[in-house]
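User: I'm putting together a small comparison set for a docking exercise, and I want a reference complex before I start. The sequence is below, and the ligand is magnesium ion. Could you produce the 3D structure with the ligand included, as structure tokens?
Assistant: Of course. I'll restate your input first, then give the structure tokens for the complex.
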Amino acid sequence: MIYLKTREEIELCREAAQMVSKTLGVIAGEIREGISLKHLDTRAEQFIRDNKGIPAFKGYSGFPATLCISVNEAVVHGIPNDYEIRDGDIVSVDCGVNLNGFHGDHAYTFRIGNVAPEVEKLVEVTLECLNLGVENCKANGHIGDISFAVQQHAEKNGYGVVRELVGHGLGKNLHEKPDVPNYGSRGSGKKIKNGMVLAIEPMINLGTKSVRTLPDNWTIITADKKPSAHFEHNVAVIDGKTEVLSTFDFVKAALKNSVR
Ligand code: MG
Ligand code: MG
């Protein structure tokens, strides 16, 4: 069932989403060549707890960390380990926070140093897919309108759209109905209504759409080991209008002229 939120509940979702945005900003200030994924995870957990939040991924179905960090061919759900980031990597950082009983969940793919032009383009197009998904999230429209917009743009550029993992509703729970797939047809799926809070999160592959799970039972990688990018925002439908609850402004401010 879909839980429609009151205005007050949406404000709590916004506060949680903003804490995730700020956490990604902290990560943006630290991420660079030579830094370990574990270090980033420790900093994120520290920041969230210092601000009275709870890392929502930690312990979720047994996930062991605060962030999902997915490098290059990893699509999502990477477990932060001792890997040290290298020049040319793309690094998807996904973060979830429970603040006052409501959840935020969003993600950014960082480009480190000299990224191959075809991979640069993948990251840019994936961000465009996210923005198109958000633009097509309209009251009285359908979830499929979001899905269609994301899929069209990705496939027009020759990329693979992951099928096995999808966006979702969120609120008191990290994952709620409805599913928000990154593929589908216009007018399909649930009707978009006031009070919906959604995580829109395109996962776009340079090559095949096929993925597999590593033996750690978490990390999803592309079947052809080509890179994958991932961006995520949280949106809410209030009084017939879609508002983006999360922001990349903290990331942008932290990155300035260093990495992107
Ligand atoms: Mg999500
Ligand atoms: Mg996420």
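The longest strand covers residues 90-99. Residues 55 and 226 are 30 Å apart (CA to CA).
User: Thanks, that's exactly what I needed.
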